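Let us begin with a simple case.
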Amino acid sequence: MIPIRARRGRLLRLLAVVLAACAVVTACGGGDTTDDGRQRMTFLNILPLESLSYSAELIADTQGFFAARGLDVTFETTQGSAPAIQTVLAGSAEVTRIGDIETMIAAGNRNAPLVAFGEVIHRGTIRMVSAADDPITQAAQFRGKLVGTPSEGGTSSITLDLVAGSAGVPPAEVRRQVVGLAPGVFDLLTSGRIDAYIVSLDTSVQLQRTRPEAVVFDPNDAISAGSQVYATSRATAQDPAERDKLRRYMAAIDDAVRFIVADEANGFRNTMAAISSKYRVPALGDPETARLALAGYVDSYTGGETPVGISPQRWRQTYDEITGIGQLPPGLDPAQWLDTGIPPAGTS
């Protein structure tokens, strides 16, 4: 007879295995569909979800566009694009939204079986802020400057290299310092400790409203890179059932984008009310700042050939730019990292 203590230990170990399995399956016993027949799907956001950057996702959720397409979407936050890429490649989530730069570097340098299949942010949302007493308004003016970045390396730093490179300035001739994202970074600028720093679209709008001496440089004036793409694993994209879910996801995002674009004439009141009904987005605390930021996102939504499609021509231009600063080897075919057949088949 097995002692009670040993049997208890065996039961605890078995319970641990069962719980771990439940975590992987998303909802133990729930399967891949909800009680009303909607299919479960996981979207990995690489930044906190409560941001206007994810307005399309938030509207698709709150306005029922996901549900109308037969989807029950769960949002999960990751610590940046690297873990998001690893998670979709492992098959533990269907989709994430990351920069075109990260996508190409992962697929081109590390041979990751990653494909981009849709795009909603067609124009980059990174901005570079300087002060009126020493403004940076052209790419060539970054030569010799000390620029604050949110973190070491990453998309912001590569974007800076691309902007400088567009004017023939080598990356080594642009100094950089990690300054984070704290509100007090602007004081480093006005005190002369840095010459410029990198912020999000939302922050740049807020600075222009509260700090008249702020000068904002838009990288889109110099480079093609900077779009945000929906990415998944090649295996997921090639699975017929999963591919259908991706089509319906993009159709819901298309519905959301059209809702937001149409709401611009109304000052985005319906958009802000819908998001606020479920999510607490700090930017919505100042309606005028939110309105201006949403107008910037509408510009990025409408900057493509189709609302949620990827332009192969721009994709190629982005690859050439990244190759030009040595972040990717020349001679590759960036089209192999694209799957352009998903969004058009699912959009309304």
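The second case is a distinct protein. As before, the sequence precedes its structure tokens.
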Amino acid sequence: MTPDLAQTVLGLLSGGLVGFTLGLIGGGGSILAVPLMVYVVGVPDPHVAIGTSALTVAVNALGGLVQHARSHTVKWRCAAIYASCGVVGALLGAHLGKIVDGQKLLLLFAGLMIIVGVLTLRGRHNVGCEGASCNRENVGKVMLYGTGTGALSGFFGIGGGFLIVPGLMASTHMPVLNAVGTSLVAVAAFGLSTAASYMMSGYVDWQLAVLFIVGGLIGTLAGSRMACRLAGTTGRLTTILACIIFAVAVFIIWKGVAAL
């Protein structure tokens, strides 16, 4: 579709919000991007929203990764193992996701968000272990979590940061700030893999993608800086992530039920 002035402004603002959330908590970008594209910007096909959001979130994640790399919060070995295993799962998940009806996919997505939100909130006081990284003892768990979250990311067409951050913390016990920075590598890898699959099926709106990327890169830099300022408040960052997940899940369910 060709965006008019209102859609252009909404696309830039929505992209900025997605980017800010992604930079702040390493997740929430995709779970905001899809509903914003469908319910705010007005993309009629959920599959187009999913494919476009996967591309934009991947690019915005790379922008946030630069900021986190400068702050030395990225565990590069963990990122490489987690992302490489997750890409395989993402490609398989994306193939399956395109088969499912778009509205049903959104409702399934909301259900997953509620589960993850509960698990995230339960672990909000987990400060992690300083210096934790991938080693011989936990590499199998890291690979398993990477493949699993990659498959879910591909199926739902999301970067999956809200899945990856808890996955990294559970598999390595690293602090949340390190998990946020490290997750951006996997978010970018999963998003690009998913976007490539949807792109081949014609499910990417390139004009809208540009708007979300431009707004998102600005928002991502601002969010990454705030994340570093809140580095010592682990519970606050995790609680913010959980609250965003719950709010968007309820909204998607409400809109989905109303459409039935």
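Residues 50 and 157 are 5 Å apart (CA to CA). The chain has a mean pLDDT of 81.
Keep these points in mind for the review questions at the end of the chapter.
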